[in-house]
Structures are given as C-alpha cells and as structure tokens.
Amino acid sequence: MRILERIGNRVIRDLSYVGGLTIQFAQGMRAIPHVLPIGGKPRRWQTAMRQMMAIGVDALPIIALMSISVGFILAMQIGSELRRWGALQYVMDTVAIGFTREIGPLLTALAVSGRSGSAFSAEIGSMVVTNEIDALRTMAIDPIEFVLTPKYIAAMIVIPCLTVMSNAFGILAGWAFMYITTKIGLSMYLDYIYNSIDMRDVFSGLLKSLIFATIIVQVGCREGFRVKGGADAVGRSATSAVVRSTLLVILADAFFTAIFYLVRRD
C-alpha cells in the first residue's frame, strides 16, 4: 500500500504542477497586450527589449560554438561511414536536414534553458524571498505581467532567431568538413544545400523553437514563484528549473517529431 500511496502522491503532485503551469500560461497570455510596443505600457516593452538582449544576443556565442562543434562532429561521423560506399555527398543532406528539423532547435533550447531558464528562476525566487512579489501585489501590479510576460515575449522572438543562427553555423561546419575532404567550394555547397532542404523542414524546426521557448519561460518562472524559504531555496529552484525544462523540452521534441513524421508519411 505504501508503494501505491507514493505513486498516487507523485501523480497528484505532477498533475498539480501541470495545472499550475497551465494557469500561469493563461495568465501570461492575457497580459501580453499590456507589454506590446503598440497599445501596451512602454516600460514593459523596454523590459522585454532588455530580455531579448539577455536571452538572445548574449547567448549567440555559446550557441554558435555548440552548433559548429556538433555540425563538424556529425559530418565527420557520417562521412567516415559514407566514404566506404562512395556516397560522401549525402553528408550535406544529412547535416542540413538534421539541423533544420532537429539539432538546431534542440541545441538552442538546451543552451537557453541552461543560461536563461535558471536565471529566470533565480531572479523571481529572489524577489519572492525578499517579499518584492508581495509588494507588487500590494501596489495592484500583476506579477505575471510585470515579471513573466516580458520574458515570454522576448523568448518567443529571439529563440527562433537563435535557431536559424544555429542551423546556419551547423551547416557551415558541414561545409568545412566537406572542403577538407573534397575541396568543394562554398557556393556549390550552398547550392546543394538549397536544393536539399524542404521549407517544411525549416517551418517544423521554427515551430519547435516556439514550443521550446514556451516551456523554458513558463517552467523557469514557475519554479521561481514556488520558492519557499531562504537563499538555499533559490538555488534549488534554479536547479529544478533547468532539470524540468530540459526534460520537458526533450519530451516535447520527441512528441512533435513523431507527429511531423506521421504527417510527412501521409
């Protein structure tokens, strides 16, 4: 009975967490008009612009390095096998399609989750510990509108842009491998890539990036709002935000990849 009780309690906690995320997401969506540059509050949009810099511009170097490394490694591993069959040209197809469909959005989401997801949780958790969130409610300011929504709008704008940059860096890394092995020129390589990529691959990757952005922001902020205790609780919330958002991103990636596979097959 203890095992069943533990399983039941865990299921109830998980469902309660998902319900809290859903309510928080709905509240954030209702607050979006107050943050937009036209018709919204100017200071909220300024906060969103600062978040775009923190989430997007500051993360570009690490995402570029990760994409170049993964793209070159992927090309080398595939090329070592395809070389045996005289099919080295298919390395270009694999790298291009793999990054636009899968690797680019996933790498970007993992990097942003580690950088910004933990920062969201730590920032909001510190505000909870120091009673700043209660002070906002006392002044009739919605904490969701003030804290979460600018982050969400910023993430929805910059994470797809970072995904495009990740795709570009990964594909260029594939060209570096092909140039070393076959001396193929960049213009010829890009022409081959252009003919091998379907726009559905690009759109599916960008759609995934929007879903991943929603998960990262909502989970990071949710963990911050749930902080109870002192400074050690803030650290635990930041760790939990990274773990939960990473897990949910991977599960969402598997789910939507299966859906896109079934749609393409039909």
Short description, anyone?
This protein is mainly alpha-helical and 266 residues long. Helix content is 86%, strand content 0%. The chain is built from nine helices and no strands.
Layout of strands and helices, then pairs:
Blueprint: H1 2-31, H2 42-57, H3 60-82, H4 90-129, H5 132-138, H6 143-182, H7 186-196, H8 199-225, H9 231-265
User: How big a fraction of the residues is strand?
Assistant: under 5%
Q: What radius of gyration results from the CA coordinates?
A: 21 Å
Helical amount among residues, as a percent range?
over 70%
Number of domains: 1
Specify the biggest β-sheet: none
Write down the secondary-structure element order.
HHHHHHHHH
Low-confidence stretches: none
* Class inferred from helices and paired strands: mainly alpha
The number of distinct β-strands equals: 0
- Provide a count of the helices: 9
Mean pLDDT: 88
Anisotropy-based shape: globular
Termini separation: 46 Å
